[in-house]
Design a protein that fits this description.
The complex is a heterodimer of chains A (about 80) and B (about 260). In chain A, strand 3 and strand 4 form a beta hairpin. The termini of chain A are far apart. The relative contact order of chain A is 0.23. In chain A, about 20% of the residues lie in helices and about 30% in strands. Chain A is α+β, with helices and mostly antiparallel strands and about 80 residues long. Chain B is α/β, with parallel strands linked by helices and about 260 residues long. A five-stranded parallel sheet of chain B has the order 5-4-3-12-11. In chain B, helix 1 runs parallel beside helix 9, helix 3 packs across helix 4 and helix 7 runs parallel beside helix 9. Chain B starts with a strand and ends in a 22-residue tail after the last helix. Classes of the chains: A alpha+beta (about 80), B alpha/beta (about 260).
């Protein structure tokens, strides 16, 4: 499975497995796609103040646990930055 | 008390300050304090998990004790601007959005058609939209009809430092919408430009590059603060109309005859 994070493709065959494990999923559930929340943890965002979008659509923080990522998805993780 | 009212908020300062292009975070912090601004603009950009650049910046901004006005800088489509606005509302916990939909890359001129469409949609979602627009009266009217309660017309292209390119157009805009807070955004290069905008009756100015890229950004922030106060005070005091011919200021009556 490949997912684009902030414009760079990442092969997630191994990462997805870890993500499912990180969620405490059972073996049966491991066929499911990882959630956005799990991938954010795995990618190292942890408690960072970020906003997220998947395939150009805003995903509120409270929905990150519900949104499952699939092959080819484009994830944007944005943070506060200097601006005029 | 002469306050700047933007939607349901009142501010003392009539200078809004951008946070980009400063030599260092420390100088940004000092410039914000020297400017005495109540509002700084911020943006959203991709965050690398390892670098966490945005986290440090955000913690600095929060320590300044000012309100943030997030922008949709760099967005070229309604969809991009909408998604960015949604992300900004969650991240910054504010309904304010400085709405930019860019239509032309050399001048960064707003795409006023996309701007209007995005503004209408965002107002429906209860955003408080501050649209970056031109001085075009018809566009301004449409934006107000769409629910924008503040307009941010450009003075000149972003970062150009050219000042008020179209004083006649800006004066007409001011006259047409006397009750709408108008903030000159973009293109101001010197404190005298800012003072001129306030003297014309504009309610505030937004400055970024002119401060951030000055040789001494902290001193320049203070200079802009003073200029904005001077311009506002002059506007309230009532400036004299310009004349084509001289009018002696010293009384002529009683002048001695000394051939």
């Amino acid at each position: 499975m490949r997912i684009q994070l902030n414009g760079a493709w990442r092969d997630l065959a191994a990462l997805a497995q870890d993500a499912r494990a990180a969620q405490g999923a059972t073996a049966a559930q491991c066929t499911a796609s990882p959630t956005l929340a799990a991938m954010l943890r795995l990618w190292g965002y942890g408690s960072s103040t970020v906003a997220t979008a998947v395939n150009g659509e805003f995903v509120p923080a409270r929905k990150r646990d519900e949104i499952q990522l699939h092959d080819g998805d484009r994830v944007e993780v944005l943070a506060p930055m200097q601006g005029g | 008390m002469d306050l700047l009212r933007l939607y349901d908020s009142e501010m003392t300062s009539r200078l809004l300050l951008g946070t980009a292009r400063y030599p260092s975070p420390a100088i940004l912090e000092q410039a914000v304090r020297a400017s005495a601004t109540d509002i700084v603009t911020v943006a959203l950009r991709r965050e690398a998990a390892q670098l966490r650049a945005g986290q440090g910046f955000w913690s600095l901004v929060r320590s300044l004790g000012v309100r943030v006005l997030p922008n949709t800088a760099g967005c070229h489509s309604v969809k991009e601007a909408m998604t960015t606005a949604h992300m900004a509302r969650e991240l910054f916990d504010t309904r304010w959005i400085k709405l930019e939909v860019i239509g032309e890359d050399d001048t960064l001129q707003p795409d006023v058609f996309g701007l209007l469409e995005a503004a209408r949609l965002l107002v429906q979602e209860e955003f408080q939209v501050l649209p970056y627009c031109t001085e075009d009266l018809v566009v301004a009217e449409r934006l107000i009809s769409a629910g924008c309660r503040v307009l941010m017309p450009w003075g000149a292209p972003i970062g150009s430092g050219r000042g008020l390119n179209n004083v006649f157009g800006l004066r007409a805009l001011r006259a047409h919408f006397p009750g709408v807070p108008l903030i000159v955004d973009a293109g101001i290069g010197t404190p005298s430009h800012a003072a001129a905008a306030l003297e014309l009756g504009f309610d505030a100015v937004l400055i970024n590059t002119a401060v951030a890229q000055a040789r001494d950004p902290v001193a320049m922030a203070r200079a802009f603060s003073l200029a904005v106060q001077a311009g506002r005070t002059a506007y309230l005091a009532g400036t004299i109309p310009a004349r084509d011919m001289a009018a002696p200021s010293t009384p002529v009556i009683g002048q001695a005859f000394l051939p």
